[in-house]
Amino acid sequence: MAEDKFYQVLIIEDEYPARMLMIDYILNCHELKLAGIAEDGNKALDLLHEKDFDLVFVDINLPAFSGLDIIKKVKKESTFFILTTAYSEYAVDAFELDALDYLLKPFSFERFRKSVEKAIKFLKEHQSSKQIVNTNGQLTFQSDSATHILAFHDIHFISANNKTSVIHTENKDYETSRLLKDLEEKLPKKQFMRIHKGYLVNLDWIASLRYDKGGAYNIQLKNQDETILPVGRVYATALKENLGLR
């Protein structure tokens, strides 16, 4: 977020009436600052590469590139998208790309405001959860607007959940806005290992490694639920080495 504490917003919209309506809506949200406007996919990509935006309202049907294509091409961890379109059939695609919301045209200011409030809540959690600290065998992180401290041993595994991660312990699961790769960097590699694109596991909690008839591996944990997690093929060899297996 910028120093003036407004969220920097980009509008990507090719239709003039819709673009003017979005400008009016944004100007009526005191937390938002209109920092850029693009009328087609090429200009949008140029702006997204030149500047950092917190929130992008993007139409799906655009000249040059679709809104979905733009999301796929932009790999900025701190930039989040809300789709605006007259077509409901793209909703599944939008959420698979981790869009924060999907505004179906025509939408009222009340619906727009609700979407903004949802986005701001997410952005605040995302900003605060960057403060991940690894000290004295403990992980300190933000979840549900609170600071939590967990001993490494108490963490069974961590799973990816779109743009968030879930830290699993015996008694509670904690959702944090940090990505799995960020948590992986903060945890000791001798104790925690990526076993799948969606899972990071505490090696101390592995009870067994299994090989099924289909040629895939999975692990079972020592926790009360005896959780079973899949092992990605590219991680299997390294996991066996870490477990002392050949």
TrEMBL record:
Q: Which domain of life is it from?
A: Bacteria
* Modification 4-aspartylphosphate occurs at: 59
Q: Where is the Response regulatory domain?
A: 8-120
**Can you give the residue ranges of the HTH LytTR-type domain?**
139-245
Tell me the SUPFAM superfamilies matching this sequence.
Answer: CheY-like
Swiss-Prot/TrEMBL keywords: DNA-binding, Phosphoprotein
Keyword Iron applies: no
Pfam families documented for this protein = LytTR, Response_reg
Return the Gene3D superfamilies for the record: 3.40.50.2300, LytTr DNA-binding domain
Q: Which GO terms describe its molecular function?
A: DNA binding; phosphorelay response regulator activity
Name listed for the protein in its UniProt record: DNA-binding response regulator
